[in-house]
Amino acid sequence: MNEAEAALERIFGFTSFRPGQRDILEAVFSGENILAVMPTGSGKSLCYQLPAIVRKGLTIVVSPLIALMRDQVQQLQRSGVPAAALNSSNSGEDNAMVERGLRQGRYRLVYVAPERLVRPDAVALLRAAGANALAIDEAHCVSQWGHDFRPEYLGLAQAARAIGDLQLIAVTATADAPTRADIIRKLFAAEPRVFIRSFDRPNLRLAMRRKSDAARQIETAVKRHEGQSGIVYCASRNGVEQLARTLSANGVPALAYHAGLDAEIRSANQDEFLRNDGVVIVATIAFGMGIDKPNVRFVCHADLPQSIEAYYQEIGRAGRDGLPADTLTLFSDSDILLRERQISTSDAPAERKRMERRKLHALIALCETPRCRRQTLLAAFGEASQPCGNCDICEGKWPFFNGVVAAQKVMSAIHRTSGRFFSGHLANLLVGNATEAIRKHGHDLLPTFGVGKELKPAEWRSIFYQLHAENLIAQDPEDRDRWIFTETGRSVLAGKAPLTLRGEITLPSGRKADLRRSLQDIDAAQAKDPALPRATFDPGAAPPMLTAAQHRLLAALKAKRLEIARAQKLAPFVIFHDSALIEMARRRPTSNEDMRAIQGVGPSKIERYGAIFLAVVASCENDA
């Protein structure tokens, strides 16, 4: 550990470990196999990079994305670490050179795509090269319960055994309990040491809104971040191209990315995003996993994500530098119905469909929750928390009303249908809509048929998911197709406990008739001003405010960084992260010793870039 701490400062420029890293590193140095679940931006990579640097032998790193391999190898090489990558994007000559280097023992880390690692020739090469550890990045890809299942990951355990007695270090940012159990079953011969850090990303502001004019809502949110990088996700390729054109026509430098584009165009657009600030990528879920750009300042969803895990993974691409970042998710009833149809009509086994429905319902509950979004999100991963003050609910962007009577009506409908029906059917029952399914099951004869005509079906569906989010109703652990009441729910049903639900308007005291007003109609009126407020991120966790002179110096430092990055064909953050430049602007270093005191500025970077950036500071000194 002493050597690791010295390498942390010498190579990476950090004087202390981030929370959770020390415990994991101690387990790695003890030779244990580990599974580490850590939020994005918490330093998962260091948990296998540092041991590889200070120990003898070779560490194999499996990554699902060539772009991620390239960026990590570039950063390691720039810091003086002998690292290389074997993948299909290399020329034959480049791969041959890496293979020679492996045979000669020149590398500490080699990054390999999973489909290459399982090949017999790669197994033989890595065995001969003395590999002693296998780090598996994005380990959730091995699980069919995960949202990014990659069949090629299923061969990793067998490849590890064929190479030799490898220590396994599996890391991921996204894995709930079923996914973790599946990862362990698929990768490890025996129970590993499991580390689970908090899933919380407190620097991310969470916000959700119902769609009114999605393109305009997204454009308004994006323009609040002029000159900053961001990602906008769409559910379809057509949606991606239309929104990218709309944003571009309105002055936003937006590029499209989806699997239907030519590979060269995708690669060029991704490189433009990684290497330049102010670029917005409009993409399907084909973009993003492993993208390690630290200064993404916002992530928007123009459509409902596929699951709660997918949502968490996708918003996690913002603010990896720890600085404040915004998220906005738009959703609609048609999004929900489409996703439900996709699950129902898929060829997946019944158990897989049940798991996907459970994750979808958790996501819908997050969209409809009447309480702190961060509390609701973390609860979906089994983590308790307090109201965050950094989401649209905590900021008071939504009004509330006494929801006891509405909850009692929903729970009565659940009880009288034996808990076997979901939100859409129950909403039709409450408003008295005699659909074919309602008549088929005789539910048009129930006393609850039509008792909720004061609201529209969409409003009842919202209330249903709010009850789920508030843990008044839950899916039976023994029978996921059945809804049951919790103890809290039974208290509300009996009129023994209060309940506040989220609406679209503020209901004056005693004005129950206002509840009959359409929540959707009022939401459409609110959507005339869909701009999100600035984040109320804890100022104690945010960087100090810069003066006007410091802002000018920061702009000059970023310009120099971009000039160097373009000349060397690197992503700017490979040279210095934004957080390091902000500290330079604030402290105005005049020597290498001053530079060394800045987090993320290690000796190797000072040797390579120190004089250049000190000269920029000196040239701006008269502007102080």
How large, in whole angstroms, is the Cα Rg?
Answer: 26 Å
Strand segment tally? 18
The helix/strand class is alpha/beta
Kindly report the spatial arrangement of strands forming the biggest sheet. Answer: 3-4-2-5-6-1-7
Into which percent range does the helicity of residues fall?
A: 40-55%
**Spatial separation of the terminal alpha carbons:** 41 Å
Kindly report the name of the CATH homologous superfamily of the largest domain.
P-loop containing nucleotide triphosphate hydrolases
Q: In the residues, how many domains can be counted?
A: 4
Major sheet: 7 strands, parallel
CATH class of the largest domain: Alpha Beta
Q: What is the global morphology?
A: globular
Set out the fold topology.
Layout: H1 2-12, H2 21-29, E1 34-37, H3 46-54, E2 58-62, H4 66-78, E3 83-86, H5 92-103, E4 109-112, H6 114-117, H7 120-128, E5 131-136, H8 156-163, E6 167-172, H9 177-187, E7 193-196, E8 204-205, E9 208-210, H10 214-223, E10 229-233, H11 237-249, E11 254-257, H12 263-275, E12 280-283, E13 296-301, H13 308-315, E14 325-331, H14 333-345, H15 350-368, H16 373-380, E15 400-402, H17 404-416, H18 423-431, H19 436-440, H20 457-469, E16 473-476, E17 479-485, H21 487-493, E18 500-502, H22 519-526, H23 548-568, H24 572-575, H25 578-587, H26 592-596, H27 603-619
Parallel strand pairs: 1-6, 1-7, 2-4, 2-5, 3-4, 5-6, 8-14, 9-14, 10-12, 10-13, 11-12, 13-14
Antiparallel strand pairs: 15-18, 16-17
Helix pairs in contact: 1-3, 2-3, 7-8, 14-15, 15-16, 15-20, 17-18, 18-20, 23-25, 23-27
